[in-house]
């Protein structure tokens, strides 16, 4: 399946994409969020978590590497930021292999190479004028179905 490219004209558009991803998400998925510093990875992850019902502060996992949020259906969403990881072995130390995680949102996944679950969906964000571009690339059947549902949402259908 071809990647899908969206233009996100402002941070509200990034929030809207996060909300649409939340509404259409599969029961279990791994998302890798790539892009340079300031590309909007955390903005998208936060919007997704909010739309999943997470209340209160959504802390950046920059130092803790992972923040875990209960999802109400018994599962958890795990938000990781591996920018500051010194050695991928730190991930093993965190014991991130439970099945509680229904949704993984991983910033800087390239720094956890080999120790993270394979992604269903890769999202590559980049600065694009005053806004951002988002390239969504599914990597599994789960990711492909997710992207198809996403394409039917008003936020994403309007872009193309
Ligand atoms: N579509 C957009 N258009 C313009 N600005 C945006 C857009 N999306 C997010 N931003 C802004 O970009 C800035 C950086 O975003 P964010 O912290 O999410 O980046 P990041 O990719 O997580 O960076 P880092 O790798 O440093 O953690 C924020 O001020 C955010 O509001
Ligand atoms: Mg970030």
**Associated small molecules:** adenosine-5'-triphosphate, magnesium ion
| Number of strand segments | 7
Principal-axis shape equals globular
In the CATH hierarchy, the third-tier topology is known as Rossmann fold
Q: Residue ranges: pLDDT <50 for 5 or more in a row?
A: none
Oligomer: single chain
Which architecture would the CATH scheme give at its second level? 3-Layer(aba) Sandwich
- Overall number of domains: 1
Overall structural class, as computed from helix and strand content, comes to alpha/beta
Strand order of the largest sheet: 1-7-6-2-5-4-3
Rounded mean pLDDT is 92
Helix-strand sequence: EHEHEEHEEEHH
What gap, in angstroms, lies between the N and C termini?
16 Å
CATH superfamily: P-loop containing nucleotide triphosphate hydrolases
Share of residues in helices? 25-40%
Number of H/I helices: 5
Content of β-strand: 25-35%
Text of the CATH class: Alpha Beta
Main location: cytoplasm
InterPro entries: P-loop_NTPase, T6A_TsaE
Organism: Vulcaniibacterium tengchongense
Pfam family, one: TsaE
Task: Describe the fold and architecture.
It is found in: Cytoplasm. One of its GO terms (cellular component) is cytoplasm. Its main location: cytoplasm. This protein is of the alpha/beta class. The chain has a single domain, classed as Rossmann fold. The chain is 29% helix and 28% strand. It has helices spanning 11-24, 41-51, 89-94, 141-151, 154-157, and strands at 4-8, 29-34, 66-70, 76-81, 101-107, 121-128, 131-138. A seven-stranded mixed sheet has the order 1-7-6-2-5-4-3. Strand 3 (66-70) and strand 4 (76-81) form a beta hairpin. Helix 1 packs across helix 2 and helix 1 crosses helix 4 (141-151). The two termini are 16 Å apart. The relative contact order is 0.25. The model has no long low-confidence stretch (mean pLDDT 92). The structure holds adenosine-5'-triphosphate and magnesium ion. Magnesium ion (MG) binds at residues 41-42, 81, 107.
